[in-house]
Fold this protein.
Amino acid sequence: MQQMVEAIGFVTAVRVDAEDDFWGGEDACIQLATSFSDEALWGLADFSHVEILFLFHGVDPARIVSGSRHPRNNPAWPAVGIFAQRGKNRPNRIGSTICRITRVEGTRLYVKELDAIDGTPVLDIKPVMREFLPREEVRQPSWSHELMREYWTATKR
C-alpha cells in the first residue's frame, strides 16, 4: 500500500551535508509551507521540546537497506536489521528527532539540535509530552552507546 505525504515545511540550517556525528549545539529553523498560517504553531512555545519527523531526502534510493547491516558499516559492531538502528538509509527514509524549542516567530519554529540538513522536508511537528516518553528505563545494546558517543558533541575533539 502506497501513501502520499506532503512536507509541512522545510529546514533551514548551516549544515548542507549529512554527517554521522557532532550535531550538538546545531541551530535550525523550520519554515512552514505557505499552506499553513502562524495559527498552526500557536501554543507550541509553551512546550520545551518538539519531535520533528523529516525525510532523509538526500539518500540515494539505490542505497536503501531493507535487511541487516553493520551500523555505519563498522564490522566491530554486530550486523542488525535496519529497524534495530537509526541510520538514514531506511526503507521510507523517515527521520525523527526530539529538539529543544528556542523560539516561535510567525510560521517559523527555531530549534536546537535537529540533525537534519538545510532543505530537509519536514513531515510533522509534535510537542513532546512527558506522558509519551518511556515509562520505564530505556535498554539498548552496548554498541549503540559507542556509536552515539560523539553524535551530540558540539565539535570534534
Q: What stands out?
A: The first strand starts at residue 9 and ends at 13. Residues 142-148 form the longest helix (7 residues).
